[in-house]
Design brief:
Elements (H helix, E strand, L loop, with lengths): L1 H15 L2 H21 L3 H21 L8 H18 L1 H16 L7 H14 L2 H13 L3 H21 L6 H19 L5 H22 L12 H11 L1
Helix pairs in contact: 2-8, 2-9, 3-8, 3-10, 4-10, 4-11, 5-6, 6-8, 6-9, 7-8, 7-9, 10-11
Length: 242
């Protein structure tokens, strides 16, 4: 029991000193500022902001596609297997159910969907990029939080814009950011030998494609269940191992 307590305290201390905590609070700060701005913005302006943010998200996704070492065959295989796994688990439905439950607590109007929409969009935007992976690994192994600090500032600005157009659901993505970055920080020693530049390139391209799909949904061009494709991001690791 004493060993378990020591390990838990060490893990807690490692996360507490990591950039993941800073990212968590800056996403909350950005979301709060976005909510304050949203109150004074007419509906039609909010729609325009939503479209503008969608174009920015699209740009982020497109620029992330051009990674050196990306292998189209691996990416196709990961998408095929990842989408199958995602559909079997139905992550999209589970996340939207979680959003509906949260909305019942914070919104008495009875209208559901907005919180889940903002939560899913922000989680994908904040958590599937290469900066999340590389920054968390650097934090866990070297104690270097510079990448996560830079990412935190970017996410804070994005949270302001995203919350002003999509609402309060964005703020709950702060928890997703803390869990994913904190988890990667703790696992850094284990997974760092596997996370070569080649593997990171595949994961980054897959994540960028999901961000593009998110942007198309935000523009109301498509209704893609993006969360059901998220398992594809992890599959390059498994393909490397086996």
């Amino acid at each position: 029991m004493e060993i378990v307590n020591e390990l838990s305290q060490t893990a807690f201390g490692k996360i507490l000193s990591s950039g993941a905590v800073v990212n968590f609070f800056l996403v909350i700060l950005g979301s709060v500022l976005g909510l304050l701005f949203k109150k004074g913005i007419p509906e039609r302006i909010q729609q325009t902001l939503m479209t503008g943010m969608a174009f920015c998200v699209l740009y982020i996704g497109v620029t992330g596609l051009f990674e050196d070492g990306a292998n189209i065959l691996i990416i196709i295989a990961c998408f095929a297997l990842g989408s199958l796994l995602g559909e079997l688990i139905d992550l999209d439905k589970r996340i939207n159910t979680l959003g509906a439950l949260i909305e019942k607590k914070v919104n008495k109007s009875g209208k559901h969907g907005k919180i889940a929409e903002g939560f899913v969009a922000a989680t994908l935007l904040f958590c599937v990029g290469a900066m999340t992976i590389v920054g968390s690994i650097d934090s866990g192994i070297n104690g270097d939080n510079s990448t996560l600090y830079s990412k935190s500032i970017i996410d804070c600005v994005a949270a302001v814009a995203l919350t002003s157009s999509m609402g309060i659901g964005v703020i709950f993505a702060a928890a997703s950011t803390l869990v994913i970055e904190g988890g990667l920080t703790l696992l850094a020693d284990v997974i760092s030998p596997i996370l070569t530049d080649y593997i990171i390139a595949q994961m980054s391209v897959i994540g960028s494609l999901l961000i593009i799909a998110l942007a198309l949904n935000m523009l109301k061009i498509t209704k893609i269940k993006v969360m059901n494709f998220v398992p594809a991001i992890l599959l390059p690791l498994l393909l490397y191992i086996f």
